[in-house]
User: What shape does this take?
Amino acid sequence: MPLLQLSPQGLYCAVGDFFIDPWGPVNKALITHAHSDHARGGSQHYMCQDLTKPILQLRLGKIAVDSLPYGKPVWHNGVKISFHPAGHVLGSAQIRLEYQGETWVVSGDYKTAADGLSTPFEPVACQHFITESTFGLPIYQWAPQAEVFSQMRNWALAQQSKDRIPVFEAYGLGKAQRILPAFAQAQIPIYLHPRIWHTHQAFLEAGVDLPTVLPLTAAHAKAFLPEAVVIAPPGSSLQAYLPKNKTVSTAMCSGWMTVNAQRKQQDKDAGFALSDHADWPGLLSAVKATGAENIYVTHGFQTIFTRYLNEQGWRAQELKTAFQGDAATEEESA
Ligand SMILES: [Zn+2]
Ligand SMILES: [Zn+2]
Assistant: This one.
C-alpha cells in the first residue's frame, strides 16, 4: 500500500493515521497553508508551519494546533514529517513524508518565483510528487514582479489624476501582503479594507516585517488622502468607507488577468496578472527538480498538464480531488 492515498476525506497516510489538507473533519490534519480550500475547520488536531498557525487560528477559531519551522522533522507513528517552503504565501509549505525509504512531497499550492515576502520555494527531492496545476497551460507565463508593480503604480497615478480612487482587489492572505511594496516603496499611502486588516495584524504580531498601512474606516468617507490607494478583497463593498463624491476605479490582481476575457467577465476597470501560483515554466521546473519517479497532478488543469508530462516521458497521473471545479472562481486560488 502506498504511503499516501486518496480517501473520501482527502489525502490520507494510513501508517501515520493523518490527513493532508482534508476536506472535512478528521482526527489529525496536516495543513499546507491557511487558504480556505486547504484549511477546513472541525478537525481534532492540526499541524502546520509556524507562520500559518496564527492565520489558521484567526480563520478557524479555537483549535488545537502544533506548528513547526521549515525543515525541522517530527515523527508520527514512525513517519517522518517535515514542512518546506512553497513560496505561495507567508507560511505556505510543501509537506514531505518519509517511511521505510519511501518519500512523498505534497506541494499544496506553490510558486517558484520569489515574491520578496514569503520564504522562496525550495525543491525537495522525493520519489512521489503531488503537484498542483492551477495555471498548467503554456499561455500562463508571468512577467517579473517589479514590472507588474510598476504598471500597478502607473495605473494608480493615472486614476488619481482623473480624481478617481484606485482600488486594488487582492485576496486577504497572500496577494494583499505581497503587493504592499509596490506602493510603499513610492511613498504612496495604503488603506487596507477591514477584512484584510486582521490578517495583516496577525502577521505583524508574528514578527513579519510589513510596510506601514492605514486601516480603512468609516471616518475616511469624510477624510480620504487623495494620494492613497485602497487594497480590498474581491467584490467587497466600499461605500461606507469612501467619499460619496468620488468615483472608484477597480483593478484585480490575479493570474487569471492574463486572459482579457476574464477581466471583462468580472467587470473590472483593470487587471494585473500577478499570481501566487507557479506559471507553466515554473510547474515544469518544479517537477523536474524533485527528481520524482511518480508525479500526481491535482488542483487545476490536471488533465492537460498530466498528458503533457506523460508525453515528455514522466510517469504522471491525475489525482482527482475535491479541489476541482471552476478554479477561476475558487476562493483565493488566484
Ligand atoms: Zn492557496
Ligand atoms: Zn489552493
Observations:
- Residues 35, 37-38, 109, 299, 333 surround zinc ion (ligand 2) (CB under 6 Å).
- Helices lie at 52-60, 145-161, 175-178, 180-184, 194-205, 260-265, 280-290, 302-311.
